[in-house]
Every structure is written in structure tokens, then in C-alpha cells.
Amino acid sequence: MFQIRAFNIRPTPAATLLSGMLTAGLALAAHPASAQDDALHNPDADRYVLPPPSIQALLETDKNYASLNYISPDGDHFVVPLFTELSTLELMSRETYRLAELEIRPQTDRLWHLDTYGIYGLRFYSLSQRRFVDVDLPDDAFVSDLTWSPDGSRMAFLAHLPSGTEVWTADPESGRARSLSDARVLATLGTSAGGQGQGPSRMLQWTPEGSLITLLVPADRGPEPPRNRVPTGPIVRRTRAEPTPTRTFPFLLRDDHDETLFEHYTRSQLAELAEGQPPRLLGEPGMSESVSLSTDGRYLLTTAIARPFSFRTSYRGFPRQTSVIDRQGSVVATLQERPLREGRSDPDAANRDHSPRAFTWRPDGAGIGYLQRAAPDGDAPQPDRVMLLQPPFDMEQATVVVESDDRFEEVTYTRDGSGLFARVSRDDQSGLAYWALDGDAANQRMVVDFHDTDDPTELPGDLLTSRTGNGIEFAFTSADGLSAYLLGDGLKADFRPQPFVDRLSLADGSLTRVFEGSRDSFDRPLVPLDPDFNHMIVSRESVTDFPDSYLWSAGSSMEPLTQNADPFPAITAARRIDFDFERQDGLTVQGRVSLPIGYQDGEKVPAIFWTYPREYE
Questions:
Q1: Which of 459, 509, 467, 520 is nearest to 484 (CA)?
Q2: Residues contacting 440, CB < 8 A, separation 6+
Q3: Rounded to an integer, what distance in angstroms lies between the CA atom of residue 239 and that of residue 232?
Q4: Fewest beta carbons less than 10 Å away: which of 50, 219, 275, 350?
Q5: What's 173-229 look like in SS3?
Q6: Can you tell me whether residue 51 is helix, strand or coil?
């Protein structure tokens, strides 16, 4: 499966303009003087009031369009989520526990946003057949954690039904969806952030046999523990002996009962689900945060929260335990026990930290890769190292793959494990290093030199990566293994993006431009369809053209695939005026006026101004 990381760029022009015009319309609808007069004579004036029908129509218009960016491992099917940001007062008002920055719905055992909005529908697109297939999902449900099976024949996801969450699967050929098991899933800690499902799931993993591993509500959990209204003692808060700068967190734990509730609704049971069979439980329940299956399907790399909790920080700072367990649920090895983290970290702490970090399965199946700086040894250098841990996963037996005097920020292997890329940093600059592991592994080759990352117009692009269906990342390389690819925003001096793809020679770091978007439209690479970039899915849009996905072929031919309809054609056609001016302190400020639909020159209309500097220190 190939997947390109999303760019941080502006939304579609129509959506941007719509947002501003809706804000203006809603603000102008509630005129202060008329609202005050109404309140004096109308007892219902303080109730909810709907906006004018024209504004309602805009809000209720389906904004979804097809973007072909989540491809199946077989290279043919794309899943297209249908997303809504709208909810109802009834859904939003249900009981919610806010514990250590987690917002949990106790009635359904999931995060509140999975109860209120998100993905409500799915479609599949077949590239070979050039057609869409709609998925038949249950009513009043949202879905998340979309995960392709290894062969691309099925899509698994979490179905957030009104009464609870289950694991479902869907067939991309027919669109038929069905429940894999009625076992109750716990979707509080491990579920994909935001419920979007555009990346790998941390709690839904396909096995080579076609079963699915996930997190369930433990059978022995019992009812929610009641709060004892009689305090066991006074509330005591102790400060640290040394200054400890701390962020402001919402919804921290307040007392012992909050701690009990947090564990009650995050403690899960790792289990394997197969159609027509009862769940096969794996090991003992714990507060699992992520689960990743090895490429051979024999082991699971897990991270779980542990006590003690804290009243000063969110759950992100709670202790963590990283372990390897086998498919029978037995703990094979404990790799790391991270202590409680409170307060802001020292900016230089990363250079002094010698604990292992960034555990992940290698895509070639060689074992677990991780990073670790060498421990102090007198005046000897302390290089940063890429390590390899193989069964039985004894940390004392880990071996050094490569090392560098520069700090490793991110490491990515090729799919076959023959090469290793690392983003390395030195003196506030960043570069891309490469090692050929099938030769002299000690030979560090800088394929992208160290460069300043503050000027976005000079950025060389990031290494293009892909993922397996279960989310194991690897570098996307050419068929002959001699080149990798860099993907960049291509921001120009006027801050207009012109995305590009460059072929990067692993021999000498030379670059060959494979693709560059047009200056007249915004052409964004989505998914390469072959290792040599002969074909690729590209999104194209402009100020007047709604986004569509195209089949790009070398030689610049572009075949439209999705034929998306603009849901707001009148707004897209509205006039905009771009301008700039110099502020009193000499700063040049860019501005845009979006004129109301039907505006006549010289007409004075109400306006809302939104200002923010493009760059600031």
C-alpha cells in the first residue's frame, strides 16, 4: 500500500470563502439592538434560534468529495470516507467524563468525538473499473480506524454504533459490510486520533490468517465504581523542590475516584477476533495505548499506561511500559518502563537522554528497530545509534546497525531492509543521511545536505514513505533500488505552493525532477502507482475549479477520475481581491477581500476582518 503524507496547506478556496461568509452571516443575524428588544417582549427569545434558511442550506449542504489517497495493498481500490462536522444537541449533551485530557463516553466506552461527529459513510473506488461502490453502513453510526487487509480484499474498521463499538469489515468489490464479532470494543486510548482513519490504526491489526487483533472491554470489569462521598483525607498538593514549568492542561485528574474512573474506562483486553468464533483473549487486561503486529504475525509490540497517575499532567505524561508478547498472550520481553513525566522538558534533555526510543517493527521482518544514544564513558564520543532487537528480544543482546555523531530525528528502512534513511540534526539544521546495509554499513552518506529549516521556500522536500496495511512504514524506492524520492510543498516567494516530486540518487545525492505542479492550479501528489513514478494519483484544484483526483502519467497527461461536483458553485464564483500594504512598523501585510455574492461596485456592506501575521518571532 502506498500513501503520501498530507501537506499542511490551505483548504479548498470554496471552503475558505464559505467559512468566512457563514461567520459574517451568522454574526449579522444577531443584531444586538433587535435581540435586546425581542427579549423584553418575547419569552422565547432566549431559546435557540435558527439562522435564515439560506444559511441553513449552506450548513446542511454535503461538502464531501472524493479524494483518492488511501489505496489498498493490491493497488486497485481506494477508500473514500464521508465526513460530517455537524452534530445534534442530543448527541452533544450525553454524559461525558473528562479525565486527564481524555473525554470519555461511559455509556459507549469510547471517546466523545466518536459519539458526536466524524465518518458516517464509506465509498470504494476501483481504478481498474473506474467506478465507485457505496458501502452499506448501519444507521446512526460513525466509523474510524480504517485498516486494509494484507491482500487488499477487505477493509476493517471500528463501527461506533449507538449502543457500543464493534469491529466490522467491508468488501471493496461489492460494498457489503458486516460485523465480524459482537464483542464490545474499548475505543478510548488506542483509537486513531480524530477518528479519521487516514493513517494506520493503533488498535486494529490484521493477522496473516485473516483474523483481527483489537482491544475489548474486559469481561471482569464490572459496573462503574461509585464515588464515596466521605473523603478519605484532606486534598493535598505538593510543589516541587525545584522550579518546574508546567503547561496548562484541561480536565486533569482531581482525586482518587478520578484515578479509579480513568483506569476503569481505559483498561482493555487484547483479543483476536475471527468470523463465527468467540474472541480469543491474549494475556491479561491492561491500559493498552497501541498494538502493532510484526510482519510475520508472530509477535505484538504493545505500549500500555501504568501507575502512578498524576494530578499535574495529562495522561500523555503518565508512565508507559513497552513490551513484546506472543500470539498466545505471554509476555516475551519488557523493553522499556518510562517513568512519570511532569513539567516541560529541558530543550537540551534530548541530547542527554540515553534511554531507548522510537521502538518499531522493521518492514523487512528482521526484528524491532529503535534509537539510543551511547552512554557516557569518560571523554569518549557519545554517538546516536540505530539498534536492532531480535527474538527473544533481550535488550542486552541488541546490536548496533549504524551510528552517527549527529542526532537521529527519524529513521526509515527500505522495504527489503537493504537501506536505511535517517533525518539527522546538527546546530539547528537538518539533513538526510543514507546507509547501504548490504555493503559497508559504517559509510554514512549525506544525500540531502544540512540546511536551514526556517525558510519554507528553500526546503528540499521530505523522504517519500509508504506503509503496510497494518501501518509499518518504509521508504518508497525505485524498482532498481538506486533511487528514493523527495516530496515537497514547493512554496514560492509569494507563498503560493507548487508541489513537486524529485528522484534522489542514492549514489551521489543528485536530483531529477519527476513532477511539478502547475502555476495556474494547485496540483498535489497523492499516491504513486509504481516504483518508478510512471503513474501517480494527483489532486488538482484552483480558485475556480473544485478539487478532483486525476491519473497522472509521465509526459504530463492527466486523466480525470472522480468528476467531483462543486457543492457551492455560487460561492466559488464570488470575486476576491488580493492586496498588500505596509503597517506603521514597516511590516508588509497581505490581505484578501471576499466580496458578497451579487456585490455591486461602490456598495457599502458590513464586513468582518480577520488578521494574523504570516510570520512572527
A1: 509
A2: none
A3: 21
A4: 50
A5: CCCCEEEEEEEEECECCCCCHHHCCCCCCCCCEECCCCCEEEEECCCCCCCCCCCCC
A6: coil
The rounded distance, in Å, linking the Cα atoms of 526 and 2 is: 9
Q: Tell me how many degrees the CA angle 79-83-87 measures, rounded to the nearest 5.
A: 155
Q: Give 315's DSSP letter.
A: G
Query: What is the percentage of the chain residues whose pLDDT exceeds 90?
Result: 70
Q: pLDDT tens digits, residue range 16-41?
A: 444 444 433 333 344 444 555 555 66
- How much is the average pLDDT of 380-403? 95
CA dihedral sign of residues 313, 316, 322, 327 = positive
Q: Do 66 and 562 meet the contact criterion of CB atoms below 8 Å apart?
A: yes
**Which pLDDT band, with edges at 50, 70 and 90, does 289 fall under?**
very high
Report DSSP state, residue 71: B
Residue-wise pLDDT tens digits, 99-158 = 999 999 999 999 999 999 999 999 999 999 999 999 999 999 999 999 999 999 999 999
For 407-420, the pLDDT digits (tens) are: 999 999 999 999 99
| End-to-end Cα, the chain, rounded Å | 40
Other beta carbons within 10 angstroms of residue 358's beta carbon come to 14
Question: Please, what is the average pLDDT of the chain?
Answer: 88
Q: Which three cell numbers stand for residue 433?
A: 543521511
Q: How far is residue 199 CA from its own chain's centroid?
A: 6
> Among residues 123, 57, 116, which one has the least CA distance to residue 84?
116
223-237, 376-390, 523-537: which has the minimum mean pLDDT? 223-237
Pairing of strands 465-467, 500-505: unpaired
Q: Are the CB atoms for 244 and 343 separated by under 8 Å? A: yes
DSSP-assigned beta bridge partners for residue 315: none
Q: DSSP letters along 411-445, please?
A: EEEBTTSSEEEEEEEETTEEEEEEEETTS-TT--E
Q: If you average pLDDT over residues 1-7, what whole number do you get?
A: 40
> In which residue are the cell numbers 458578497 written?
596
Torsion angle defined by CA atoms of residues 331, 336, 339 and 345, in that order, rounded to the nearest 10 degrees = -150
Provide CB contacts within 8 A for 47, sequence distance 6+: none
